[in-house]
Amino acid sequence: MPHDLDNIAVPPVAPREPHEHELHGRRWTDDYGWMRDHSDPRFLAYLRAERGYYDAAANRLEGLQTEVFHEVERRLLPTDDSVSWRHGSRFYYTRTVAGSEYEQFLQAGHDGDSDRVLLDGARLAGPDGFAEIGLRELSPDNTLLAYSVDTTGDEVYRLKFLQLATLTDLSEELPRTYYTGAWSADSGTFFYTVHDGLFRPHQVWRHLIGTSPEADVLVLQEDDARFDLTVQTTRDLRWITIEARSRDTAEWRLIPADAPHTAPVLVAPRRKGVDYSVDHADGRLVIVTDDGAPEFRVMSAPVATPGPEHWTELLAPRPGERITACHALRRHWLVELRRDGFPLLRAVDRATGAVVEIGAEIDAGHVRLATPVEYGDTTVTVVVESLTEPPSWHSVDLGTGARELRKRREVPGYDATAYRTARRHATAPDGTAVPVTLAWRADTPLDGTAPALLYGYGAYESVLDPEFDPVLPSLLDRGVVYALTHPRGGGENGRGWWLDGHLAAKANTFTDHLAVADWLADGIADGSRLATRGLSAGGLLQGAVYTRRPERWAAVVAEVPFVDVITSMLDPDIPLTVNEWDEWGDPRKPAEFDWMWAYSPYNHLPQGRRPALLATGALHDPRVMVHEPAKWVARLRATATPQDGPVYLRPELGAGAHTGPAGRYAHAHYEAEITAFLLSHLRATAP
Question: What is the mean pLDDT of residues 350-372?
């Protein structure tokens, strides 16, 4: 049936410039390859026309958008403080302020002093009102704050140093830096990363506070384009660590924090397919690795002889568990792990071996460390939440497991008892049980009559654990069942879950997501009113299920979708190509080309009537270039029939990040747009 969103003017038509490609015996034509040149004035003109077309359509749902936005706005406390955390002798926290898009970062009062605002995101924003903090690292002596800001969304961060005594920036600034940084023990030297022209962090530099950045020293450069560099400190602040990491391989180096000019020392040379991470305690390294343990174990080695031949097992792997991290504390090993698809914390007493496990303890819930952990800590703060339960912060004694509630997020007008959530499983075509986390209103019948929205990702071993979102009740209150899918390719069920959903096995991600949709349609939700949504690699998932099963969906939302798989992975001159080959494959190789070609949405057209599609992009996005969704939309439009649903492209033409508009109100407006689009096509607009 028609929707208010669809009764609008004729959509833009992109110029076609056919270009023939041939590789591995296959020939294909790309009519829109010219869009790769973002300097072509036709491209910006086309994006502007697409945005105008989308805005005209979206304006027809302005009433519903406004309704949803105000619902979300009412669930946001105008002013709220986070729980505080200790750094050395001082405490810090963040605050949201009424009317402000961005949070503040504060230092708690000390010896009668008042609390002080150290950073205010609103004051750091650029001309377009955009600000993203890249890093925020306090010096060991609490005299300086290293912080970096991006004001366009391109993830190029300007690094500055704030003198806490005077709340003034030091004169030195570094204009092009990336995420992660580390202080020397004396707070006089700062290590930072720099990315290359393809946005790969390939260098670690050392800056001496009080000197010109021109005098900074290159500490390490990574020339293998498959590897990224990060820099940080061990939990006890004794060592600065530099990690080189590809998708499945790691290599670490150490620099004494009290001798920052020392050359970095290698822990263990990289071996293809061997992953490891490093912490330190009492002269020994604590190493989490999959060497000899597919789902990882914890090893130990002397700092003086750190090579794998000296590794001894500290904590053995357990069946059904994936160890993701081990924090070395003075009295405990604090292990982060996953069991049965859910996160869990385990504290092991270093002296006695006694174990305390810390779980969510709520239905389909999620627990994680909420604040930084220091070496001497015997208690930690965790946050617990679910799709329907707002977050609550608890102080947990690592020796006894005793919990004390520190804070529960207030959500005005929201009653968690009116909603339900549960973890269920669908069955994939190969018999694999695919987890799905459901949320619904208690008065919504799960009898095959309700509309449903699926959300999925499924890549990089990343995990989409259930978290509370103040937008979600606006869907649930209109009778929509929400299904957070956990397909293979993600890390919900461990390293094996990722391995079975990438490279040659990537198709499992798509069939898993479709299996959840079919399971929902088999008596739980209305199979004619299913929608699906995902972002980035999750946008690829949306493109794939849109192409494979267009009849399954009432609407599809693909945010910044990676959909031109073959072209992008053949181009080493754009970001995220060479270092992505270990995730998707290298199409220069015939076998890998074949499996990538089989699912690349841009190279395949949906067969049968197509549902409504909304794709998004961002002009400054360095991760998925905006020409990918633009090309895809243009090709779909050129091949559409009158029976097909509408196709929209919502490009962000000003400052904007990979994940959408920054700022809590700007993002709430964006979510209201997307939600209104979905509700309209799900025919679920009335609360």
Answer: 97
Measured CA to CA in angstroms, residue 317 lies from 299, 312, 321 at distances of 10, 13, 7
CA distances from 309 to 51, 245, 305, 661 (A): 59, 21, 9, 49
Contacts of 510 (CB under 8 A, 6+ apart): 487, 541, 544, 545, 548, 599
Per-residue pLDDT tens digits for 142-156: 999 999 999 988 899
pLDDT at 2: 39
| 586 has catalytic annotation | no
Q: How far apart are CA 200 and CA 193, in angstroms?
A: 10
- Tokens for 676, please give them: 């209104």
Contact residues for 130 (Cβ-Cβ < 8 A; gap 6+): 150, 151, 152, 153, 654, 655, 656, 657, 661, 662, 663
- Residue 119 CA: distances (Å) to CA of 129, 145, 159, 320, 342: 16, 10, 13, 43, 35
Cα-to-chain-centroid distance, residue 320: 25
CA nearest to 548, candidates 577, 524, 518:
518
| Whole-number Å distance between alpha carbons of 552 and 538 | 18
Residue 489 · residue 458 · CB < 8 Å: yes
Tens digit of each residue's pLDDT (9 = 90 or more) over 533-578: 999 999 999 999 999 999 999 999 999 999 999 999 999 888 878 8
Please list, in sequence order, all residues whose beta carbon lies within 8 angstroms of the beta carbon of residue 619, skipping any fewer than 6 positions away: 38, 47, 626, 651, 652, 653, 654, 656
Structure tokens at 59: 């304006």
| Alpha helix (H) residue ranges in 484-599 | 495-499, 507-521, 537-548, 565-569, 581-584, 590-599
CA angle 91, 362, 438 (to 5 degrees): 115
Instruction: Confirm whether 277 is a catalytic residue.
Output: no
SS3 content of the chain, % helix, strand, coil (to 5): 20, 35, 45
Rg (CA), the chain: 25
Each residue's pLDDT tens digit, 37-78: 999 999 999 999 999 999 999 999 999 999 999 999 999 999
CA of 303: how far to CAs of 204, 287, 599, in Å? Answer: 22, 11, 47
The two structure tokens encoding residue 450 = 């309700």
pLDDT of 621 reads: 77
Q: Is the pLDDT of residue 132 over 80?
A: yes
pTM (two decimals):
0.95
Give the pLDDT of residue 4: 46
**Max CA-CA distance within the chain?**
76
Lookup: tokens for 182: 């580390």
Sign (positive or negative) of CA dihedral 476, 342, 499, 565: positive
Distance (Å, rounded) from C-alpha 561 to C-alpha 487?
A: 17
Token pair of 181 as six digits: 């940084």
- In sequence order, what are the beta bridge partners of 135? none
Task: Quote the pLDDT of residue 579.
Answer: 86
Tell me the C-alpha distance between 68 and 470, whole Å.
11
In percent, the amount of the chain with pLDDT more than 70 equals 98
Please give the Cα distance from 396 to 374 (Å, whole number): 14
The four Cα atoms 211, 215, 221, 226 give a dihedral, to 10 degrees, of 60
What tokens appear for 487 in the block? 């397909």
The residue annotated as part of the active site, out of 100, 148, 184, 536, is: 536
Residue from 366, 658, 680, 681 carrying the catalytic annotation: 658
Catalytic residue among 280, 621, 627, 680: 621
The DSSP secondary structure of 285-305, one letter per residue, reads EEEEE-TT-TT-EEEEEESSS
Rounded Cα distance between 491 and 248, Å, is 13
513 is catalytic: no
Give the count of beta carbons closer than 10 Å to the beta carbon of residue 112: 5
The residue among 164, 162, 101, 167 whose CA lies nearest residue 135 is 162
